Amino acid sequence: MPRIQTDNSYQTVITTFDATPGTCQDLLDALTDAYEAFISKQPGFIAAGLHVNDAQTRIANYSQWERREDYQAMLRSDEMRKRNREINDMCKAFEPVMYEVAACFD
Is residue 3 part of a domain? Predict the structure, then answer.
């Protein structure tokens, strides 16, 4: 489960994917498989979540890592490079952005 706290040292990555209603489920399946089979087993991985909008035109992904370098190493792996090429073919665009938690509200 993601840990959203201002006093942590984790690397938070939020990625948005632009899809179409015709490709959204395929993209979601590919992302789910990537997390279940590979990403979640990588060093430094903490947690992630996938979110889909009602129109099935956007997928948002929230992931946390122990260190920025852990996330970067996962991205640079041969396995993830191959998967990202396939994911790219299923969406109009995707953009991962690294963030720090600025505030939390319960």
Answer: no
- Total domains in the chain come to 1
In this predicted structure, the answer to whether residue 80 has a pLDDT above a threshold of 80 is yes
Answer whether residue 6 is part of any domain.
no
Stretch 55-78: mean pLDDT: 96
pLDDT of residue 86: 95
Tokens 């996938």, residue?
50
Q: Residue 5: inside a domain, yes or no?
A: no
- Domain range for 85 is 11-99
- Pairs from 67-71 (Cβ < 8 Å, separation ≥ 24): 67/11, 68/11, 68/98, 69/44, 70/11, 70/42, 70/43, 70/44, 70/45, 71/11, 71/13, 71/44, 71/98
pLDDT of residue 105: 87
Tokens of residue 95, six digits? 């953009």
Q: Specify the residue for token string 């959204």.
A: 24
CATH of the domain at 37: 3.30.70.100
Question: Identity (one letter) of the amino acid at 8?
Answer: N
